[in-house]
């Protein structure tokens, strides 16, 4: 009977362990504390920086099995804001983002790799201007003490020409820096 009880206990612990590993905790990004930023250089001009103001997202994190974590974003391309209205209108137009034809920019993860206790590498598919490409972002993760919240900062670089955005090359840089900084609360 002792051996049966021990086997049953180990089996139960195994099932409970699998159940907790298989469950990811969902988080909601605080729109007031989230910025989706970009920056791009151009010869003879300062670096152009801006943000995208409208987005939706899904974030599920499995702290025990980070590879099971998932993230997705859908960004309204027309929500671009450089604080220069004439530049915003030009970048939204057919030479760059062509927001009339391609209203959304999406990212869906397909892999999360834990690098250390505060950093992960998130791989996924970025779709921009109707073109989907594999991209990778490094994400710094900090748990907020006393809160059921995380500070996240994802950083990556893309080549806009990979997505068919060739306007202004080579005077406007092909490389675009992307940063997503947010506070996410557990749900």
Describe the structure.
The chain is an alpha+beta fold and 187 residues long. It has one domain: Lipid/polyisoprenoid-binding, YceI-like (Lipocalin, Beta Barrel), CATH 2.40.128.110. The chain has 2 helices and 11 strands, in the order αββββββαβββββ. The protein has helices at residues 2-22, 85-92, and strands at residues 25-29, 35-42, 45-52, 55-61, 70-76, 80-81, 104-116, 119-128, 131-144, 149-159, 172-186. An 8-stranded antiparallel beta barrel has the order 1-4-5-7-8-9-10-11. It is elongated and about 45 Å long.
**Strand residue percentage:** over 45%
Per CATH, the architecture is: Beta Barrel
CATH fold description: Lipocalin
End-to-end C-alpha gap: 43 Å
Helix-strand pattern, N to C? HEEEEEEHEEEEE
Largest sheet: 8 strands, antiparallel, barrel
- In total, the number of domains comes to 1
Number of helical stretches of at least 4 residues: 2
Arithmetic mean pLDDT: 88
Provide the spatial order of strands within the biggest beta sheet.
1-4-5-7-8-9-10-11
General shape: elongated
| Gyration radius, in Å | 21 Å
User: Uncertain regions: pLDDT < 50 for 5+ in a row?
Assistant: 1-21
Short account of what is shown:
Helices cover 16% and strands 53% of the residues. The chain is α+β, with helices and mostly antiparallel strands and 187 residues long. The protein is elongated, with a radius of gyration of 21 Å.
What's the helix and strand layout?
Blueprint: H1 2-22, E1 25-29, E2 35-42, E3 45-52, E4 55-61, E5 70-76, E6 80-81, H2 85-92, E7 104-116, E8 119-128, E9 131-144, E10 149-159, E11 172-186
Antiparallel strand pairs: 1-4, 1-11, 2-3, 2-11, 3-6, 4-5, 5-7, 7-8, 8-9, 9-10, 10-11
